[in-house]
């Protein structure tokens, strides 16, 4: 028996196994992510960290040949158990990708895309969502005069922040981030990191990063993935200062990966 | 060559002279440049030739260009010969736009099926079938139209079977593969991140297709339609076999009709070079060329607006 998830637990993953056809990509993964926390997932390339984060909003289902066992409990509802409504799940579990992927539409239309498909039609309401979310990601001042221009004209960092705003526009509880700064310059990266620290006041954030400094800077908890296993998952400060496992120590001190 | 020895100075080795020039590079460049020049020369030559021939009816035979384009009376052999080609321009544009109107939704629908819904089946079954359709010679389409379609129309619809309608049906089948192939390429070239981005926001696949993918691919999809129209506009043989080739503006789509291309192919053989009728046919050729140029300009404009 696992401990009953407490009220603020957002994700409770129990013994998750995942195969791509014959390849066993995730092995007995156990994790608990709570609200108002940044959960960092680190590990070398191919360790399954990106696969794992994609299971949390079931984007993994887009990949061919995926099979899963175990439990991914989102707010006490097992995503693998019943027929989960993907629309509702993904409205509540936002996702940010490696590279900003705005739609080739106006800045305004990018943000209202989510709210519109989820049924918000009133112009005043949409206007308000655009303003609040853009302010949340500190982009409002930069773009407020050109909301109707194409989002493709923004810089890489601005595009990524726009995508975060777009995800926030559907009022999620969780924001998943899959290496959100790996394609950005240091200044844009810093802005996104500051933003995450702001966002965790309202959301649960799970971030995959290959940048260990980033994980240690911003996260509250860190899980170290290796060959599909969770080697160590604990408080970030403890994992980086006093790792229990030899492999964790080797990895964070740069001896491999 | 003595200078190109090991002891030669940096200057001698680095500065190109007759001796150490990369001659294979020069030859390769000359070869491909020649190919390009021949292409351009052929295009320009055809344009000049067609313009020279096509303008004779106006400058030598003194047919008024406006009357030529707008008059509905085509009677080149009668006593009061009259050269009005408006019915044929109308016929050409009518078959082109009507067939595009039918082929566009069908082709884009099939393209979306192939790129979004069932890529495996699309690649293995649908794509080869479509490529096969492209390869069928137009005379075969025309023949099938004549033997199968025309009697069918005659039996079940108004008119005698030969009609604008039959022409549109044949052309639709002919341009459908063009539209589908180009539209499929357009959909497939969309970055996967767009699909992921939309699905991750909780959009359904259909919402993603309708609100993100189609708008993003729109310029390319329009290009697909315009290229299909260009093909329909230029097609002569297949249309000629089913459209009836009469010289009046059709009153309904079940009436017989004619297009610029069908009139040219039907008549160019039995008119003498330099006669007025012959010259007016050349003028039609010139008009076809001009409208084709317009199609190409539209395509270029659209591809310049591609967003992703």
Calculate Rg of chain A over CA atoms: 18 Å
Output the strand order for the largest sheet of chain B.
1-2
Strand sequence of the main sheet of chain A, in spatial order? 6-7-8-3-9-10
Largest sheet of chain B: 2 strands, antiparallel
GO molecular function (chain A): ATP binding; ATP hydrolysis activity; phosphate transmembrane transporter activity
Pfam family, one (chain A): ABC_tran
GO biological process, one term (chain A): phosphate ion transmembrane transport
Protein name (chain A): Phosphate ABC transporter ATP-binding protein, PhoT family
Question: If you had to describe this structure to a student in words, what would you say it looks like?
Answer:
The complex is a heterodimer of chains A (257) and B (308). Chain A is α/β, with parallel strands linked by helices and 257 residues long. In chain A, the strands form two sheets. Chain A has a six-stranded mixed beta sheet with strand order 6-7-8-3-9-10, with helices on both faces. Chain A has a four-stranded antiparallel beta sheet with strand order 2-1-4-5, covered by helices on one side. Chain A has a single domain, classed as Rossmann fold, CATH 3.40.50.300. With 308 residues, chain B is mostly helical. Chain B has a domain of 202 residues: MetI-like (MetI-like fold, Orthogonal Bundle). Chain B contains 13 helices and two strands, in the order ααααββααααααααα. Chain B has a two-stranded antiparallel ribbon with strand order 1-2. In chain B, helix 2 packs across helix 13, helix 5 packs parallel to helix 8 and helix 7 runs parallel beside helix 11. The longest helix of chain B has 32 residues. The N and C termini of chain B lie far apart (53 Å). Classes of the chains: A alpha/beta (257), B mainly alpha (308). Chain A: It holds the Pfam family ABC_tran. Chain A: This is Phosphate ABC transporter ATP-binding protein, PhoT family. Chain A: Keywords: ATP-binding, Nucleotide-binding, Transport.
């Amino acid at each position: 028996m696992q401990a009953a998830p407490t009220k603020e637990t957002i994700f409770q993953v129990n013994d998750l196994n995942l195969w791509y056809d014959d390849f066993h990509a995730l092995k007995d993964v156990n994790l608990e992510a709570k609200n108002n926390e940044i959960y960092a997932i680190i590990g070398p390339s191919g360790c399954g960290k990106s696969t794992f984060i994609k299971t949390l909003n079931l984007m993994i289902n887009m990949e061919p040949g995926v099979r899963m066992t175990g439990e991914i409990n989102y707010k006490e509802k097992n995503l693998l158990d019943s027929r989960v409504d993907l629309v509702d799940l993904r409205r509540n579990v936002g996702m940010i990708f490696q590279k900003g992927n705005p739609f080739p539409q106006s800045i305004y239309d990018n943000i209202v895309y989510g709210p519109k498909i989820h049924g918000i039609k009133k112009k005043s309401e949409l206007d308000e969502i655009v303003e609040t979310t853009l302010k949340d990601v500190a982009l409002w001042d930069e773009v407020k005069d050109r909301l109707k221009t194409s989002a493709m004209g923004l810089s890489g960092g601005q595009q990524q922040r726009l995508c975060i705003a777009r995800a926030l526009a559907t009022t999620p509880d969780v924001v998943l981030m899959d290496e959100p700064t790996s394609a950005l310059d240091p200044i844009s990266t810093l802005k996104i990191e500051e933003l995450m620290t702001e966002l965790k006041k309202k959301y649960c954030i799970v971030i995959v990063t290959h940048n260990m400094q980033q994980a240690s800077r911003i996260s509250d908890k860190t899980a170290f993935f290796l060959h599909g296993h969770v080697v160590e998952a604990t408080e970030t400060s403890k994992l980086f200062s006093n790792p229990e496992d030899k492999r964790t120590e080797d990895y964070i001190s740069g001896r491999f990966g | 060559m003595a200078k190109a020895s090991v002891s030669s100075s940096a200057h001698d080795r680095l500065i190109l002279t007759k001796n150490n020039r990369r001659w294979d590079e020069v030859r390769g460049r000359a070869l491909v440049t020649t190919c390009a020049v021949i292409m351009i020369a052929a295009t320009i030559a055809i344009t000049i030739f067609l313009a020279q021939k096509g303008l004779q009816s106006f400058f030598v035979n003194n047919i008024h260009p406006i009357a030529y384009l707008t008059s509905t009376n085509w009677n080149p052999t009668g006593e009061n010969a009259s050269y009005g080609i408006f019915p044929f321009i109308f016929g050409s544009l009518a078959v082109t736009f009507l067939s595009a109107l039918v082929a566009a939704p069908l082709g884009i629908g099939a393209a979306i099926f192939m790129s979004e819904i069932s890529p495996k089946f699309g690649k293995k079954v649908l794509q080869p079938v479509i490529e096969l359709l492209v390869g069928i010679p137009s005379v075969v389409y025309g023949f099938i139209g004549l033997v199968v379609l025309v009697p069918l129309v005659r039996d079940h619809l108004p008119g005698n079977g030969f009609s604008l309608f039959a022409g549109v049906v044949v052309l639709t089948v002919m341009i459908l593969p063009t539209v589908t192939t180009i539209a499929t390429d357009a959909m497939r070239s969309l970055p996967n991140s767009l699909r992921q981005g939309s699905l991750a926001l909780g959009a359904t696949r259909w919402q993603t297709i309708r609100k993100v993918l189609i708008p993003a691919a729109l310029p390319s999809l329009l290009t697909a339609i315009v290229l299909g129209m260009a093909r329909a506009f230029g097609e002569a043989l297949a249309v000629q076999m089913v459209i009836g080739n009469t010289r009046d503006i059709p009153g309904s789509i079940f009436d017989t009709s004619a297009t610029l291309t069908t009139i040219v192919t039907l008549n160019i053989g039995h008119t003498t070079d330099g006669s007025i009728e012959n010259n007016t046919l050349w003028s039609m050729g010139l008009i076809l060329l001009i409208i084709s140029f317009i199609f190409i300009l539209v395509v270029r404009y659209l591809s310049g607006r591609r967003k992703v």
